[in-house]
Amino acid sequence: MAFFNRVSPALVEILNKLQSGESLTDFDHNLYEYGSVRYNIQASASSPQIVNLSTWMPPLSPEFSSDCLPDCALQDVKRVYLDSAEVVEPSKQGYMLTLRIDFAELPQRKDRMKAISEISSLHAVILSSQMKDMLWNLEPRYMGNGMCNPIKIVHQLKEPFFVIKMLEKTTVIYPMRFKDDTDVILATSFFQELVDVSNLEAHYKAPRCTWSPIPPLELRGEPFQYLTTNGGFVSLEIFSQHIRGTKADNTVWNLLTFVSYVKYHVKCTRGFIQRKMRQRQESLTEVIRSARIRGDEDVKKHQIGGHKNVKKLMNFSRSKMFKKRYTIITNKIKKFHYRIKIKWLLHRFRRQWLRVQKIPLLRKYRKLD
User: Which of 41, 85, 210, 240 could form a disulfide with 99 if both were Cys (CB 3.0 to 4.6 A apart)?
Assistant: First the structure.
């Protein structure tokens, strides 16, 4: 999130302490941010209201490396900090720019906090100025095959992107890299949705976005290490209307912080999904727990009901119990008597009706010698 925040929180904290007069001795502090931005803040005990702020940062493109601040960036700094700071020339040794801040000349209360926030966004002003100069004043550099030579921009270490300047438009290509496969899936879904939205008629004024899993043709000939990605390549087409007037600052800063924004979006999406899954798991666990408690209550009720039935049986009178036993015994005796009687009748029936009669032989045979 810090990469797409214009204001430096650490620098704001230091300037607030100095303007409140908390430091009663000489102050000389070095501050490093984003891995490559370096600040030096100096204040003396004799004049605590005056602070010298020096900064150094690498150029956006290695092709235009210089220890001095470009003229376009210097003019923008003077214009932005006309009422709140003064540019010291020459700057402190080892730094590209030095600002002299007089807290006595700054407005009071809320306006002073606003001025301090503007001063703390010094690195954003310098980077945006360099990027605007590339997009606006840089001439197209054509190669032999009719393609333009891309310019490598390094805003974050190990995550460069490329700018291809043409006559009618400027194409910005971002190689996207992620550490986790889950982040790759979320980012790919986000890129596809971004492409679909940019192609709608309602957003025709916005820069056109495309995504490809393979390197675009514009990056042909670049080193292999810059073309090896797991998140594909995102391309944004910038036209002249996007970098005119008040839109220029927002457009340039969005281009510089696009990679940071995507990673922040993926991180938030992943956290949202995990939070929803955790809530779903807790709700299911609660359902199972309530069902288990309800089942235990049913078992207890059944056991209590059984005890009540036993008590009811014990409350029967002895006469009723004896009467019940007597009826059971008499029924058994009757059943036994019926069995004996049925057997006697069957025996008599067999003797009378199922007796086999003897038939005399009609012929007699004589034995022959």
Answer: 85
Strand partners, 95: none
**Polymer length in residues for the chain:** 369
Domain assignment present for residue 185? The answer is: yes
Residues 122 and 145 in one domain: no
Domain that holds residue 169: 140-271
pLDDT of residue 348: 56
**Alpha-helix residue ranges (DSSP H) falling in the chain:** 9-19, 71-80, 110-120, 122-137, 181-198, 224-227, 247-256, 258-314, 318-353
The Cα 284–Cα 275 span in angstroms is: 14
Is the model's pLDDT at 1 over the cut of 50?
no
Last residue of one domain, picked from the residues 132, 157, 191: 132
Contacts of 23 (CB under 8 A, 6+ apart): 17, 43, 45, 48
Please check whether residues 149 and 101 belong to one and the same domain: no
Any domain includes 184: yes
* Average pLDDT value for the chain: 78
Which of 132, 158, 177 represents a domain boundary (last residue)?
132
**Same domain, yes or no: 172 and 267:** yes
Side-chain half-sphere exposure of 351, counting CA atoms within 13 A: 6
Unique residue bearing structure tokens 């807290």: 103
Within this chain, do residues 34 and 114 fall inside the same structural domain, yes or no?
A: yes
pLDDT tens digits for 239-297?
Answer: 888 877 778 888 888 888 899 889 999 999 999 998 989 888 888 888 888 877 766 66
Residue 353 forms part of a structural domain: no
Q: Report the CATH number at residue 68.
A: 3.30.1460.20
Structure tokens at 93: 């040794």
Residue pLDDT, tens place only, 139-182: 666 555 556 788 888 887 778 899 888 878 889 999 999 988 88
Separation of alpha carbons 328 and 335, rounded Å: 11
Q: Are 269 and 186 in contact (CB under 8 A)?
A: yes
Do 80 and 116 fall into the same domain?
yes
Q: How confident is the model at residue 49 (pLDDT cuts 50, 70, 90)?
A: confident
Question: In terms of DSSP bridges, do strands 233-238 and 37-43 run parallel, antiparallel, or are they unpaired?
Answer: unpaired
Element (H, E) at 28: strand 27-33
Taking Cα atoms as reference points, which of 20, 22, 18 lies closest to residue 31? Answer: 18
Q: What is the pTM of this model?
A: 0.69
